[in-house]
Amino acid sequence: MMMIALSQMQLVKRLLLEYINILNYKIMPLMINFIADGGPLFMIPLLIIIIAILILFFMGLLGKKNLAKSIQLIGHLSLFGMMWGFLGSTIGLITAFDAIGDMEVAKHIVAGGLKVALLTTVFGLISFLIGRAAIIILTLRSPKK
Known about the structure:
- The chain is an all-alpha fold.
- It has helices at 2-38, 40-62, 67-101, 107-141.
């Protein structure tokens, strides 16, 4: 019996180390590239919004804070994140169209503007979806009145 428990602990330890390895060497560089490609001016605030939504969600799950206030804050943050992403999208498109309008159409400038437009929109929508999923879960877990 002790041998089985020990091997299960070793398996859990091995899986945890593999997960940390994947996080450090595959996911983090990908996230850093997304932030750099999407423009730090828009992507870093969106990342902060996602982290704030997740913190409020877990605080709501643990009952550390007023649940109604957490749900309301998550809703406001998720909408702000979505709008911030659309603002980044609009500015990215304006940058791309300015490059085309100046007749100095360099592929990297147009592609950079379009990339900012698409990445900030996607990141803003992800923050919105995370926030809405958190609201749904917290609402379902809230006590009935």
